[in-house]
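Most newcomers find our protein records easier to grasp once they have seen one. Read left to right, the backbone structure tokens trace the chain's path through space. Nothing more is needed to start thinking about how sequence determines fold. An example says more than a description, so a record of this kind follows:
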Amino acid sequence: MLEDISGEKIKEQFKSNNKLRLITIVVGGVIVIVLGYFAYIQFMWNPDNDKSKDSYWAGLNYATADSTDMAIDELEAQVKKFDGKVGGEVAQFVLARQYMAKGEFKDALKELENVDLSDVYVSVMAKGLRADCHSELKDYEKAANLYLEAAEASDNDFTAPMYLMKAGLCAEELKDFTMATECYEKIRDNYTSFASQKAIDKYVARAKNKTTK
């Protein structure tokens, strides 16, 4: 029996069996790809990703000091260098905010639509900023839908009522007073602290009054 599994026998089967040869080549190729992927992650992506986490601080400092143009120049370079890495994504988020500060809302949208961050809070804020851009561009329907998505994505006492409020205001611009009323009533019924700050009852009354006309 040992002769049947000798090295020579295997070589003969490999040479004569095209299917076996093809399977061997394919499996070998997959192994090479998998090993290459893990080597890339371990020795290239991880170090670059760690390095990227400090990459946006200079741009953020410029932004904090209201040096918008300098912040944009710095952040654009870091986004290009670390695209897909954690620091690069954060830099892209901050870059979008700087475009918004200059009133360049279309450029801001391009950046925000490509931001990919696992942090729930930042991803919700990115969606909210996209809605802000659409609102500034007077695309109130798109803005309202994004505000509602942002409100639903993270049900907390800070962002959820804020985005519901903005969705309601956009709905009023669209003369969809039923939707506006629903947004304001959700704030009144579920987020009492925010509701009291905004005197939400007057918004509910205003939207309901326009609904009945």
About this structure: The chain has a mean pLDDT of 78. The CA atoms of residues 106 and 133 lie 7 Å apart. Residues 8-52 form one domain.
